Amino acid sequence: MRPGSVVKNVGALLLALVFVFPVYWMFSSALKPADQMLTKDPVFVFTPTMDNFAKATGVTNFWTYVTNSVLVTVGAVVLALLVALAASFAIARMKFKGRKGLVLTVMMAQMAPWEVMVIAMYMIARDGEMLNSLPLLTAIYFVMILPFTIWTLRGFIAAVPVTLEEAAQIDGCTRGQAFRKVIFPLLAPGLMSTSLFGFITAWNEFAMVLILNKDKTAQTLPLWLTEFMTAFGNDWGATMAASSLFAVPVLLIFVFLQRKAVGGMTSGAVKG
Amino acid sequence: MTVHSQGAATSAPQDAPPKSAGRPKAPTTAPGSSHPVPPRGGRKSLPSGWLPYLLIGPAILSLAVLLLYPLIKNVILSFQDINKVEFIQRKYPFAGFDNYTELLGDSTFWTVVVRSFAFTLANVALIMALGSLIGILLNRLGKWMRLVLSMALVMAWAMPIVASVQVFQWLFDEQFGVMNWVMRTVGFSGYDRHNWFETGLSTLTIVTILVVWGSIPFVALNMYAGLTTVGGELYEAARMDGANGWQTFWKIVFPNLKPFFLITTFLEVIWVFKAFTQVYAMKKGGPDRASEILPVFAYVEGQSQAHYGLAAAISVLTIVILVIVMSFYFRLILKQEEEQ
């Protein structure tokens, strides 16, 4: 090996360690027995225990948090895909008055400062008797991920050659059939990567649920993660166990989909 | 022509039933089908002029109800004087520009604005520079090492934000954090019980490490994916011409990946400027409100201090600032849109 490539490989390995360490530390702390957790010098070798996981999942309402998170996230992603698919098809394939304005609107909406608008959202929800409402939360998350979904899908649809669609129409398909049978299958990677990003946004959302849903039965998992940090002390073991459980679904989805998602981002959103 | 009109005649009755459900009436309406030739396949579709609007309708409607309405409500709130008492009584008296004059004359507000800009600038610069470098490195690694590094990046990328905030708090914990141990092991004995969250600046530094760590993977992996689309022969040619790495980057990589840099920087600026969760979940804007950036400032004023009108004014100003900063970006991206 040339010296240059040794430097390169050692550098890459060190970088990999830096990026993975916090994730590793989260999982290993979650498995650590309590008496080896709070030590001045960290313990690296220990007998794993499930105590922290038991404590984290043992809180009241745990399954309510899980159900709420799943419902809200899946609901928002599915809604966003349906609505965005129609809109992005129109943007990518049709000429109509106001098309450019729509593109601009989508871009503006993409930078919507949701976190800044929580106060207004709170007032609206309160005056409409919609505090602690899961449907409202789902609707908000849906609109949060909608612009990004439209933008990305538009790129994917634009990347499918129009000639394919025309050929299908010449073969006797209607425009709708041409879309279903020809374009839709080619969009699979695009749909996957957009739903991945949508999923993560909704799964992670913290500001809205923090302020709109004070009632524990209407809260989602991000708030559960902060439950073990109190003014009386932090239960780091339980916090790390909760964080691990929260992260696992996303990690798994990512590891399986990342190749498609990454390629998708560049071919879809970035290269237009 | 004749063939067509025949086709039209045979297809017309097929089309008719769904529209006029009554059976007996069908024959009487059938003669009326001496209308313009329907499209091939005989199916009556919507006039194509409507179709795009029908398709974008749901999206426009949802954006209007759930985004535009709260935005307008936010602007209205910013002109009202709503504190705890008014809030409970549900009386919202108008206050003209009082909230704005109060804010613009308040040095705290300007401190937060400057802090937000510095925070955004530092984060985005670090993310873009390091992310691009790692992307380039990925492109030059062998197959196995590339897999190792990209897997590590994916792990960091996939970490949910709230979870990563918790982990970073734990890593930088005063008593039992692994960072203090690392510093002591390296030889800085002063790091026994060092409080990493002692000042606003040090807290924001930890937040920056967290944000940069979590954001680099997106840039690096996409940069790598983008690089693979730039033909290898271009690099080869550049090397033949004696270009060094720096020149190769500016002459070949950058122009080829300009759309990528444009949009990624755009997204990162937005994401970092609005980074509420990372800052708020870390130390709630503390110590002493010294790590508040604009979104957190608005939230704390509104929720903890119950100055709702004032909070709305902060958020309106935040939006205005963001729009001004981003406006030149819109021009660039729209221009690119036209070129396609």
Automatic annotation (TrEMBL), chain B:
Stretches the record annotates as Disordered = 1-43
Q: How does it sit in the membrane?
A: Multi-pass membrane protein
Tell me the SUPFAM superfamilies matching this sequence.
MetI-like (SSF161098)
Cite the InterPro entries for this sequence: MetI-like, MetI-like_sf, UgpAE/MalFG_permease
Give residue spans, biased composition: Polar residues: 1-13
Which GO cellular component does the record give, naming just one?
plasma membrane
Pfam families, per database record: BPD_transp_1
Q: Where is this protein localized, as stated in its record?
A: Cell membrane
Picking any one GO biological process from the record gives:
transmembrane transport
Keywords (alphabetical) are: Cell membrane, Membrane, Transmembrane, Transmembrane helix, Transport
Q: Where is the ABC transmembrane type-1 domain?
A: 113-329
Q: Where are the transmembrane segments?
A: 50-72, 117-138, 147-172, 201-221, 260-281, 308-330
Per the annotation, which location comes first and is thus the protein's main one? membrane
Looking up PANTHER family in the UniProt record yields: BLL4140 PROTEIN (PTHR43227), DIACETYLCHITOBIOSE UPTAKE SYSTEM PERMEASE PROTEIN DASB (PTHR43227:SF8)
Which family is this sequence assigned to?
A: Belongs to the binding-protein-dependent transport system permease family.
Q: What is this protein called?
A: Sugar ABC transporter permease
Q: Name its species.
A: Streptomyces subrutilus
